[in-house]
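I have a small job for you when you get a moment. Can you supply me with one protein entry, sequence and fold together? It will help me judge whether the discrete encoding reads sensibly. Write everything out right here, beneath this request:
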Amino acid sequence: MPAPSSTLPPRARTKGVAFPGTTLLQGEMDVTLLRTWRKTIADDLDRVMAFWTKNSHDKEHGGFFTCLGQDGSVYDDLKYVWLQGRQVWMYCRLYRKVPRYHSADLLQAALSAGEFLLRHARVSADSMKCAFVLTRDGKAVKVQRTIFSECFYTMAMDELWRVTGDEKYKKEAAAMMDQIVHWVREDPAGLGRLTMPGAAAASSMAVPMMLLNLVDQMEENNQEMTDKYSGLGDWCVEQILQHIQRDGQAVLETVSDDGKELPGCSGRLQNPGHAIEAGWFLLRHAVKRQDQALKSKAIEKFMLLPFKSGWDTDHGGLFSFLDVDGHCPTQLEWSMKMWWPHSEAMIAFLLAYSETREDQLLEHFRKVYDYVFSRFCDTQHGEWFGYLSQEGKVALTIKGGPFKGCFHVPRCLYMCQEMLDQLLLEG
């Protein structure tokens, strides 16, 4: 549909149309509709969190089970450090920010899992490297030569410090953050990756965007960290912006170290969900820094462009991967509709609307919202299905696994609830 005009008064009102199939008229922010969205999202957050608190806690060894079937049954007891850290972060963030989750039981579960991470996440006592997979009782199974286990470990420790005031968590977060920055900017070889003679020097967008998210985490109400990581945040932004290619008409997932397009399939790869997620990271940074140019670029290049190319006009939903030249991507799951890009798109478009009041952005939020609550959401058992076919049918009934845990969905719902509360307050 054509973009609605932004010249009409943004505070106009009309009678709301309830989900599903909601529509917005040009220039109108419908309070009734916002309230409907807010209730649906808050109710779903409660269902999602009830699913995880009921089914995922390992009361014997600490930490969380994440390989959960549709009804919450555990089908594998391996523990993935990414997901352990993410769930600790999620529990602590809800405890801090959402009054109805200020619960001793929720905090105790986060503390138990945080201590599990402190005991077992590092592969050895003299190493800062964290495992990727642990046994149920904490023995390392697999290590990835990336920074992401360490990133989510850092997020968990920083949030634990914020809810407990215990300095050991603050020190642990700061030490791991320093190590991550050292690996990325000074000693990439320290991660243990082999350099192959035929491999081009490449820059994945995942690294600077994850670091930018960590900068946002560490800086919250902490002037010492804001001063320390100001330059790092600017570096992350510079690195992310290099992924705008094709004369500003595409965001590519991987570019050369000096910001040029790479040849072949990997160079042409687009990941719409990742680009949109980077967009709201950039937008939050731009708002904090009062950088209007970056604010515009975050919305136009990292939200609107990937959404336009990534949305399936035949079946709805966001594709997982695309080739910028229209070839079939080599990723077997390229046409699937996965949970996390849609979570990120809901956050991104509602945040962008909150900052600009541009009607088109709220219309995009509506489109994703309608798709999510008609396809992903399981109102019977709680949580979202993670993997749909291109047509939008459930392809895998599992609710959690090696990559899907208690993070993208509740983060999306909590943030959207918070933003809708603010929009309703502003009237």
User: Anything to note?
Assistant: Residues 1-27 have pLDDT under 50 and may be disordered. The longest helix spans residues 31-55. The chain has 13 helices and 14 strands. The chain has one domain: 31-191+203-426.
